[in-house]
Amino acid sequence: MKEMAEYINDIDVSKQAPVAEPNRQYYFIKKASEYVKAASKEAGRPLTFCVTTFGCQMNARDSEKLVGILEQIGYQEEVDEDKADFVIYNTCTVRENANMRVYGRLGQLKAAKKKNPHMMIGLCGCMMQEPHVVEKLKTSYHFVDIIFGTHNIYKFAELIATRFESRRMVIDIWKDTDKIVEDLPSERKFSFKSGVNIMFGCNNFCSYCIVPYVRGRERSRNPKDIIREIERLVADGVVEVMLLGQNVNSYGKNLEEPMSFAQLLQKIEKIEGLERIRFMTSHPKDLSDELIEVMKNSKKICRHLHLPVQSGSTEILKKMNRRYTKEQYLELVHKIREAVPDISLTTDIIVGFPGETEEDFLETMDVVKQVRYDSAFTFIYSKRTGTPAAVMDNQIPDDVVKHRFDRLLKEVQSISAEVCSVHENTMQSVLVESMNDHDERLVTGRMSNNLLVHFPGDASLIGKIVDVYLKECKGFYYIGEMKNIP
């Protein structure tokens, strides 16, 4: 970041902006920084920013890029959005109530903006890819300054500079893109671990999901760029990376020289200094025997796999357009468990999908009982406007769905408590992530299988991988201590 800052500082903004990326964005970072410097002088203080992230880990990684760009421009971070001069919401639109939360928060910001002449409000992310949202913002929220979507986040500095110059609302939404811009600023939330995008977009079109419509078609990053990014992260102290994609198992299919996800993992594993590799999300239909073999032989890939099943009913899976059957999913689980016996399996399950009968629901319960997940994210089906499922017949009554959801949750929690307790009285490697939220004498870390452990320690342990004896399982986490087995 220091080298980048020096390079940006030397740019002459009196000349025309370059066409090629990322140099074009470096130019606008310098240009925007001059506007911010002038505004700070006028305000008599440094200008501040607050980035709020809604949604998935892809959004969280995008927000790190937003933070990196804002800091290069000269803004300073402020955790309280009511006090910030630049508030940006990186939005999610998987469920419609997420949209309502954003509108509500915007209403509260309107009063703050009236009091602060230097305040700007930016909106980006998946929600902005919906045309009706942008129309509503233009008519009812005209105090918003910058609106952009998921495909051109790299243009953030350019949009800020444009807003300073035009003094009007700036809207830049792309319907789709095949563009990936490398080497932009990014400010990690954690010094010792980082998300790494390996691909963008989704080609699956599950019938309940809006993501392919707002994230666009699958685009894989060049493996050399991914390796180079991870090498730089490791040189900067990162010991664990999380490889991110809407469906990591389909990585590489659109590259000029195709490469499978399993092959990419093998290359990443060779990076010296990298201790742990995680990835998500895996679509069952694309999880190959090759990938299972790589996981089996790996020393660095964490013993955790998130494998969304969504439903245990083959009939419902067909309506969901998931492209696998109950039997195929269970066979896949069998293969994985046979190759990696200590694997921790987690999943996503939707209850109450249109047309789901009691028999369909019992098929889901059967999968839960057979697989015995370490944990499961359980969701009540939420009708999402713009998806095929939203207009399907036989939408399930709320009371029926609620009853099924409660039964499923009880079963999932009961099994999880049993499954997670198997590591009691064993020594495990733990990456220490933070001081404990509730007890200042404890630190909190994460095992390879993704379970949390709380044990006595201080801040000097954060970012280190240590051996911890697991004394007691508390259902979904452990109490441990750093000592040898007695």
How do the helices and strands line up, and which of them pair or pack?
Blueprint (H helix, E strand, L loop, with lengths): L1 H8 L13 H21 L4 E6 L3 H17 L2 E2 L8 E6 L4 H20 L4 E6 L5 H10 L5 E3 L7 H11 L3 E3 L20 E5 L1 E2 L10 H5 L3 E2 L2 H13 L4 E5 L16 H9 L6 E5 L8 H9 L6 E3 L7 H7 L5 H14 L4 E8 L6 H14 L3 E6 L17 H23 L6 E9 L6 E6 L4 E5 L8 E9 L3 E5 L5
Parallel strand pairs: 1-2, 1-3, 3-4, 4-5, 5-6, 7-10, 10-11, 12-13, 13-14, 17-19
Antiparallel strand pairs: 8-9, 15-16, 15-18, 16-17, 18-19
Helix pairs in contact: 2-6, 9-10, 13-14
Query: For the residues shown, what is the average pLDDT?
Result: 94
Count, helices: 14
Supply the helix-strand structural class: alpha/beta
The main sheet comes to: 6 strands, parallel
What is the tally of beta strands? 19
Query: What is the overall shape?
Result: globular
Assess the beta-strand content as a share of residues.
Answer: 15-25%
Helix percent reads: 25-40%
What is the rounded distance between the termini? 47 Å
Strand order of the largest sheet: 2-1-3-4-5-6
The rounded Rg comes to 24 Å
Low-confidence stretches: none
